[in-house]
Amino acid sequence: MGFSGHLVFARSKRPLLEAPVFDSINQELKDTVHAWCPRPGGWQTLQFDHGLWADNYLLALVGWTGAPACAADVSDSDIALVTGLGTNGQRWQAWLNLDNAAALFTEEPEDLDDVSLWVGTPEFNEAVRRKRAELDVDVPADAEGALVWAEAAGIPATARQSRIEELLRSRETFAEDLCSALLDELGFPQAAQPSPEP
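User: That's the sequence. What structure does it adopt?
Assistant: Structure tokens below.
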């Protein structure tokens, strides 16, 4: 079973969990929040279990940090919807693992009694292909939004849009890995890997 919850990425000189927006989360639940290895420049990623993050937190977090931030809504490690927000209110969104998203969002026939009899059929595969094509149409705009957001965060504009589009169309076993790869590709400084214990 994969991870379901939220990955929250923002910049702060203080631990991100100290942001006032998280004051409503009781200490017992706060103790379940996992901090990833930080990236240079104060960039931090927090991993929240499902149900601990609300969409309106992103605006409050950007206000507190004074820097762009993003959150990825991850479902069973299969897919993630990343939402970025700039200090000027500019938002962007992008799906990660488009093939999985297409399969999940494909509408089932109304007269279907057993979904398992439909999945894997030529009709199902064609419906998924159509849904994947629908989602793919948004990829260039999603990539452009991500690049503009990263530049507003002070990241030098060295990333190529074609590379971001390629990543948004790629597939990984864990959507969380795609979230990290997206930040790397956008030009955010990479997290230092912890040194192995002797």
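The mean pLDDT is 91.
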